[in-house]
Amino acid sequence: MKIQQEVHNLLTGLGVSPGTFTGGQLAVTSPITGEIIANVRVTETPEKNIAAAHKAFLEWRSVPAPRRGELVRQLGDELRIERETLGRLVTFETGKILSEGVGEVQEMIDICTFAAGLSRQLTGLTLPSERPNHRMMETWHPLGVTGVISAFNFPVAVWSWNAALALVCGNSVVWKPSEKTPLTALATQAIFERAAAKVGGIPANLSTLLVGDAAVGQALVESSQVPLLSATGSTAMGRAVGPRLAQRFARAILELGGNNAAIVCPSADLDLTLRAVAFAAMGTAGQRCTTLRRLIVQESICDAFVSRLRKVFATVTVGDPREPNTLVGPLIDRRAFEAMQKTLETARSAGAVIHGGERVEISNWPDAFYVRPALVEMAEQSEIVRRETFAPILYVLRYKELNEAIVLHNDVPQGLSSSIFTTDIREAERFLSVAGSDCGIANVNIGTSGAEIGGAFGGEKETGGGRESGSDAWKQYMRRATNTINYGSDLPLAQGVVFDID
């Protein structure tokens, strides 16, 4: 069966109307073969979609939070039913291997479970008052329309991190997916509508899509009816979006660049480290914001460890992500491939020793871009190392003392994810301390890729500073009110102020 027909079958099976992905202006290409698999209709009036979502919010905000949680619970159940199908669609549209595609949908299920429980725990505080017969407390209220702009590499999981929390918090959601991956968004919207129908009484347009390029997403940035925008993408995108949101005093959750590093200490379990580094560097063909891009290895073990790593990089199976033995699928498109090659050439000019990085030709698929992951040995952390390239390139640097490694680790503009491999508790605790990693995520003896739903996800510095998913990230989707109740007959003023009138 041709890949286009299989994709169309998946879409219709998931409940997507053929009219939305045939005959439209936006051509969608599968990175597996490089061929066009759909032509999606572009949203022509995004402002109307936002206005409809605002109307839905005005109704939804008054629905009790546990009832809102029931919708998210039902969404999770529908995703369980469609886990394999939607996961396969993720693979077709992004080029991820099948286990990663299905794993992304599992992540959606997990955040729905988390958010459904959260719907009964949107707690405020009761605070002591300095005045007699007074009580202070804080309450949390729905904020408004939550805008979500997602990137191609996690086409559905990032939406779910935001949408599940936003919905239980009483908000509506308007989603602008990457123009490279709108099909999985159409499928997710169809699944959401199925869940809403089963629950019943859900406002129309509680979740809605904006399909198109950056100009369509601009409506979310500019609209006064969108008090919160969560945007995932490059640091350059964040620099463009952030000031515009700030100008109208909107909230921003920005998940931007990552230039993640791992430190390998002499005491590390090197078998464990090898597997962790391989997945962190090569998973999703190096196209994760949490991909491991810098490996800082203690000089006494560097040669032996890098020798083992070179063999893994040279022998890992690169190819069709639908095949069960494939571990590295294609880059998203030609532009990604050319950026990778340009970066490698710059590194080579700076004296780097490069292993791999070449294109892997797949017969009959001349428009697909498969590459051998690149292991790049560098003498120093030059400017090219400090700049993130969204491709499977792992730079190797050496260090003598741990303090030197931590300085190298932190000496990049980005601050998303990090890890250290050690069995020395002093080294581990130093890395996690205030004098250690400056990233939003700091791990010990696991890679930089992957974060469990229970923890807040996000980074510092040029990564943007936002947080999504677990912990208390829900507070970003609500507004806080501090309340003081006087249940006495007197009116004492705070701070001992006296203001008597006749």
TrEMBL record:
<dbReference type="InterPro" id="IPR016161">
    <property type="entry name" value="Ald_DH/histidinol_DH"/>
</dbReference>
<dbReference type="GO" id="GO:0004029">
    <property type="term" value="F:aldehyde dehydrogenase (NAD+) activity"/>
</dbReference>
<dbReference type="InterPro" id="IPR016163">
    <property type="entry name" value="Ald_DH_C"/>
</dbReference>
<dbReference type="InterPro" id="IPR016162">
    <property type="entry name" value="Ald_DH_N"/>
</dbReference>
<comment type="similarity">
    <text>Belongs to the aldehyde dehydrogenase family.</text>
</comment>
<dbReference type="InterPro" id="IPR015590">
    <property type="entry name" value="Aldehyde_DH_dom"/>
</dbReference>
<feature type="active site">
    <location>
        <position position="255"/>
    </location>
</feature>
<feature type="domain" description="Aldehyde dehydrogenase">
    <location>
        <begin position="25"/>
        <end position="480"/>
    </location>
</feature>
<dbReference type="InterPro" id="IPR029510">
    <property type="entry name" value="Ald_DH_CS_GLU"/>
</dbReference>
<comment type="subunit">
    <text>Homotetramer.</text>
</comment>
<dbReference type="Pfam" id="PF00171">
    <property type="entry name" value="Aldedh"/>
</dbReference>
<keyword id="KW-0520">NAD</keyword>
<dbReference type="InterPro" id="IPR044638">
    <property type="entry name" value="ALDH7A1-like"/>
</dbReference>
<keyword id="KW-0560">Oxidoreductase</keyword>
<protein>
    <recommendedName>
        <fullName>aldehyde dehydrogenase (NAD(+))</fullName>
        <ecNumber>1.2.1.3</ecNumber>
    </recommendedName>
</protein>
